[in-house]
Amino acid sequence: MEVTKIDKKTADLWVKTKHYSRRPSIFWAGFGLKINDKLEGVIVYGQPSPPIQKYAFKDRDFRLYELTRLVVQTKDKNAASFLIGRSLRMLEKPCAVVSYADSAWNHCGFVYQATNWLYTGATKSHDHLYLVDGQKLHPMTIRDKFGVTNIKEWAKQNGIKTIPPQAKHRYFYFCGGKRDKKNMLDKLTYRVIGEYPKADPIRYDDGGEIH
Asked: Which residues are within 8 A (CB) of 45 and not within 5 positions of it... i.e. 6 or more apart?
């Protein structure tokens, strides 16, 4: 296995094809997992939300990323952890990274737990999901796919069921030397919770293999 830099075009193809959201995110940095010289996964780091940028740290003097997309098609159990771990080493330092595990998809962040991220509790999502032909779709996905602007009205007119906002588990990871990591931890405004959340692992439809 090896991890290399990838461009936005490559990352977007994988996300549109295989990520459960089917939506590319803001792209600041992207990396690919190669096994025997074949691309088997991608990870994307982008821009955190304005509230996280403003309030997650006191007097922040380091770069803050959000791990926004992670897609791995190989069945190797260690592949996702390997991709995360190696890609974190390749980000500019010092930096902090935030990421979320969405309980609406029965995610609790197994891969973040396996790579020793700090768990800081759950935050309530702002968005309803919509059940369209048996699939959970994000409002932005519906907008892009169907050209709908008033999504709530469209769902009502078409008898589309909604899923209320669910909790998103929030994790942080610090990249840098010991002094850098201590500085980031001291400035973190969220309480670190020692016990990780649990859930039953499931797989979603990942759109088939990319060759």
From this structure: 28, 29, 30, 65, 66, 67, 68, 87, 91, 97
Residue 107 belongs to some domain of the structure: yes
Q: Please give the residue range of the domain that contains residue 144.
A: 127-164
**Quick one: which H or E segment has residue 135?**
strand 135-137
Residue 207: inside a domain, yes or no? no
Alpha helices (H) along 22-102: 50-55, 79-89
Question: Quick one: pLDDT at residue 142?
Answer: 73
User: How many CB atoms lie under 10 A from the CB of residue 174?
Assistant: 21
pLDDT of res. 166: 75
Residues of the chain whose pLDDT is less than 50? 204
pTM as predicted = 0.80
- 106 and 199 in contact (C-beta within 8 Å)? yes
How deeply is 17 buried, as exposed, middle or buried, from its count of CB atoms within 10 A (0-12, 13-18, 19+)?
A: middle
